[in-house]
Amino acid sequence: MEITDGDGQGWPLLQTNMRSNTSFFKEQGLLGIFAALLLPIAVSLVLPFKKSLKNKQKKRGVITNTGGELGLAMRNIKFDSLIHEPWSGASTIASLFEQSCAKFSKHPYLGTRRLISREVIDSKDGRKFEKLHLGEYEWENYGTVFNRVCDFASGIVQIGHDLNSHVAIFSDTRAEWLITSQGCFRQNLTVVTIYASLGEDALVHSLNETQISTLICDSKQLKKVAAIRQQLQSIKYIIYFKDYEEVGADVKSKLNDLTILPLHEVEQLGKNNPTPPRLPEHDNIAVIMYTSGSTGLPKGVMISHGNMVALVAGVRTVIPKIGPGDVYLGYLPLAHVFGLAGELVILSLGCAIGYGSPLTMTDTSNKIKKGTKGDVSMLRPTLLIAVPAILDRIRDGVSKKINEKGGMLKKLFDLAYNRRLKAIEGDLLVASSLEAFIWDKIVFTHIRALLGGRLRFVLCGGAPLSADTQRFVNICLGVPVGQGYGLTETCAGAAFTDWDDTSVGRVGPPLPCCYIKLVSWEEGGYTISDSPMPRGEIVVGGPSVTMGYFNNKEKTKEAYKVDERGIRWFYTGDIGQFHPDGCLEVIDRKKDIVKLQHGEYVSLGKVESVLATSNYVANIMVYANSFNSYCVALVVPARQELERWAANAGIAYKDFEELCENEKAINEVQQSLLEAAKAGKLDKFEIPAKIKLLPDPWTPESGLVTAALKIKRETIKAKFKNDLQKLCQ
């Protein structure tokens, strides 16, 4: 089974050879017979206890008096007040790291796969593909990693780095990323995190705005740095992770005015010349984290040590029992707050982190040499953090393969799936643990093997997870799914579903480290007095709310407010509603910036202004949501232009409405939008994949535009709801 990204290109997520119907049932023959015999027994065991579901829900959040006059605030019911630290004394990332390393010193911590060989293959179209033969994971325990961190912390001082300037890390996720960042924290150095995929303009902006003195990167990023060297204002030192790819002489020549050292030399320098640590305070800035910059130049979010440890403290209280025996697959970008926060939670629990990447994750991933095991097969993780797109691919791939096999295999799968679905949704008739055991052995074991067979918990965040996919993971992978909601400005976390909450479509109650407040947005029609549930803009307050945007007081003032109690609140721009049990559901977006399924941000207004340059467009509204990887558009065509084209093309039509439904007319307008998009330098994901032509103009009288002829987005979405749903199918 192969699961790829939406256009069939990307990296394969999972692949396995599904057994034929015959061989499958030969293997499972005895179990099948046992199932037939035991299912009636299982049913009889629970029949006396069957009862209808009650509407009572476990209370998970409670209203507080911190909302103010215009807001309704909620906190987690488990605690009477907000928590700030995972345990006493762990008030900074540096102290959290030191104490965890002391507590779990002999336990494995960081694992990296050994590179056996590397080859570059030329394809028929002239492109080159790298294939890696990777071996077992090689592990360093907590104590060893702590010593390396101390050595690096001393080494960065010894090379001459100014302790009052910033350090940037520009690299893919790997063990060295964590080691160098913790070394910086130990000397109270602020780390600037930069996506490895960041473009040149955004990279220059990030490095210059924060006046970077030392840049830490992997070997391949040195080429990007060399290309922009003349634009960098403050950089003096480069520390690089030495890989199998050697740094070329041409690259070194462009950087010959800088001090360039491999990481191992800096560590050795620090080991030979130990320097006392300069441990931070909880309100010192640990990280300046740059966003993806999809709406212009990226903004740097200032995250204090206290912000991050408060988030760690909150998440620790709501996840299942996890500890040193657990293994986490580290592949998410550490330059993203979701990945960084996840690894700090793992650190606090003493788990092991085995590093991988999307390009080496499975046995058939793009960079894996044939015959080599992927990261998942080799590591067999018990913990996984994923974005919805990955879980969607797993579901779609398995479903497709089951449907292709058909016959008895599909009937058995459907029977097992439907009965387990009823059990999860509370039907006690099928809630027997014996029946669950039988179905697991017969059907679901094979699917769980795709992710190593040992998963115990999945955390999903970054975008909304569909109900169908969540149920698939619950049943087929046999694990609870914790959905999280948060932003960079809230250290990745604000709400988190409890592990025993089997509902779908919600993101749980507030984490114990923050309040969540809904503030009425009258213009959009969302108020805290709405029935049956209060609705409004989601505002997050508490110790995990970050300090603002670096060197950008205006944007900070817009998004952050401090109330009379000293609580810092961040206004998210998202719209949510509180369920009676205190759980939050995210239902809309206040601003016209939307995150797509794979995490890209689309500024709808920017895209509309570019596409409106087409001669065929009289008016346009672009629509996108987090359940799709593309956007769509409603277009009111310029009637004269479209009719002129139809006449020249020999298109016959009864009226303008019929012309707007003509496939050739739709294709002509869509082609013109593509040309406008290219001229406006839009990204591929910003170009509408599907459009609907609407014959009637939008006027102030129709209520679809204002007197100034600006579109009323919410009104248009409501009027053309069915059309938008069809476009998004």
UniProtKB/TrEMBL annotation:
<dbReference type="GO" id="GO:0016020">
    <property type="term" value="C:membrane"/>
</dbReference>
<keyword id="KW-0812">Transmembrane</keyword>
<dbReference type="GO" id="GO:0016207">
    <property type="term" value="F:4-coumarate-CoA ligase activity"/>
</dbReference>
<feature type="transmembrane region" description="Helical">
    <location>
        <begin position="29"/>
        <end position="49"/>
    </location>
</feature>
<dbReference type="InterPro" id="IPR020845">
    <property type="entry name" value="AMP-binding_CS"/>
</dbReference>
<dbReference type="GO" id="GO:0005783">
    <property type="term" value="C:endoplasmic reticulum"/>
</dbReference>
<dbReference type="InterPro" id="IPR000873">
    <property type="entry name" value="AMP-dep_synth/lig_dom"/>
</dbReference>
<keyword id="KW-1133">Transmembrane helix</keyword>
<dbReference type="Pfam" id="PF00501">
    <property type="entry name" value="AMP-binding"/>
</dbReference>
<protein>
    <recommendedName>
        <fullName>4-coumarate--CoA ligase</fullName>
        <ecNumber>6.2.1.12</ecNumber>
    </recommendedName>
</protein>
<dbReference type="GO" id="GO:0009698">
    <property type="term" value="P:phenylpropanoid metabolic process"/>
</dbReference>
<dbReference type="GO" id="GO:0106290">
    <property type="term" value="F:trans-cinnamate-CoA ligase activity"/>
</dbReference>
<feature type="domain" description="AMP-dependent synthetase/ligase">
    <location>
        <begin position="132"/>
        <end position="550"/>
    </location>
</feature>
<dbReference type="GO" id="GO:0004467">
    <property type="term" value="F:long-chain fatty acid-CoA ligase activity"/>
</dbReference>
<dbReference type="InterPro" id="IPR042099">
    <property type="entry name" value="ANL_N_sf"/>
</dbReference>
<keyword id="KW-0472">Membrane</keyword>
